[in-house]
Amino acid sequence: MIYGIDTFGYHDVLEIAKHPSKAKLSEKSIEQITKSYHNVQKIVASDRTVYGINTGFGPLCDTKISESETAQLQHNLIISHAVGVGKPIDKTISKIMMIAKIHALSKGFSGVSLEVIERLILMLEKDIIPVVPEQGSVGASGDLAPLAHLVLPLLGLGQVWENDQAVRTSAVLEKHHIQPLKLGPKEGLGLINGTQFILAHAIVGLSKFEYLLDLADLTAAMSLEAYRGSASPFKKELHDIRPFDGSRKVAERMRNFLKDSDNLKSHEFCDRVQDPYSMRCVPQVHGASRNAFEHLKQMADTELNSVTDNPIILSAEESISGGNFHGQLMALPLDYCALAAAELGNISDRRSYLLLEGKFGLPKLLIESSGLNSGFMIPQYTSAALVTENKTLCFPASADSIPTSLGQEDHVSMGSISGRKFNQILGNLENILAIELMFGAQGLEFRRPAVCSEIVEKNYEIIRSVVAKLENDRLIGEDILKIADLVRERKLIVN
């Protein structure tokens, strides 16, 4: 993969994060980077005034900076903007920020030198990953504070990760015999103007969400098996006359999950007319969430291959001061996907609740000796709490805007908050689905000797390899954690 030249998808970025040597600079990308850098040098030597190159920043855009002060201007920009607070983001997210920043700078419209870009690549390859606080970006004029922390190590400042410990950058650079850099004109601005913090959260979230969408279909199939619900709502003919891509895909997956199931044969002569919505409307609800995923994926892939700083250097004679740094284009689909992920948890909790009611041959609370034993009563409380927490996280951060920079930046996206909330919701969803899987596996115990489809039976065995059938009350909180580990480690078979 070639930085700046190839079109990256979010899976490519995740692969580079695992194996940094898989992406390189080509001669063509080096040529573009060098050309852009030389254009900036020509601007500095001319009498033209260009924002961020020989002016101050934000409300100080009318303050002219002399040629001799341009390097100090860029240094001051980085150290003054590194004001993030809160706990550090995950190291992987910092890596993805670096990859996305390298890719954007390598397109040759930012005026950043080859030396700076090669230093970022070197840090990535040597696993010198910056420590970046999670709070402080308003998601417009770029993710200024997080990106400032991301590039502080170029100056020998800030902190980096070493064996999962945050340590001073200067000590790590000395260990690797690396000297700090001195930034030239426009370089500081090119480094911190951009949406890479928002984008990195979107990429990590997409990876989690893609698996959880598939897993949600599996949990629904297992619950339907335990409930002895009907497979009629998943028939192809039904979804061909309301042909949304997401619902058609979910219906097809449900048909595959339920193929040749003994449990569904019980409906051949039963008097049950139809199941509750949480069983019957899986394609419509899960499908809507899939449609949201596809929208975010499309937007993230476009953003990943875009130039998102300001100003854009087209030539020594032409630069454009615009708003490519504004995070609204990512903030809206992130908020939409947060709601879509929360809804997967919402309907999952309803299916879990149905399995506890003691209907259609299942014992109340999924245990034969209820009364003396509480069975699975309380795990549903946990599920309900997580579902409600997710609902509170669904308020769209993009609906708010607080002016900054003395009014120069009078509309901001808050997309960084959208990205963080999306990932919080996904973390809760992992536990909600783990609880439904625990209930579904227990429900199947009361349907034996009936056999489910091959894929459902395999997943039942995976669950039973870490959690036994519940006969009497025990520390089932530990069972939830064990199944949640299966979810996070993607050990359940979803295709």
Q: Please give the count of helices.
A: 18
Q: Strand percentage, roughly? A: under 5%
Calculate the mean pLDDT score and round it: 93
List SSEs in N-to-C order.
HHHEHHEEHEEHHHHHHHEEHHHHH
- As laid out across the biggest beta sheet, the strand order is 2-4-5
Cα Rg: 26 Å
Helix/strand-derived category reads mainly alpha
Helix content: 40-55%
Cα shape: elongated
Low-confidence stretches: none
Give the terminus-to-terminus CA distance.
28 Å
Question: Got a strand count?
Answer: 7
Q: What summary fits the major beta sheet? A: 3 strands, antiparallel
How does this structure look, described?
With 495 residues, the protein is mostly helical. The chain is 54% helix and 4% strand. The chain has 18 helices and seven strands. The strands form three sheets. A three-stranded antiparallel sheet has the order 2-4-5. A hairpin with a 2-residue loop joins strand 4 and strand 5. Helix 14 packs antiparallel against helix 15. The mean pLDDT is 93.
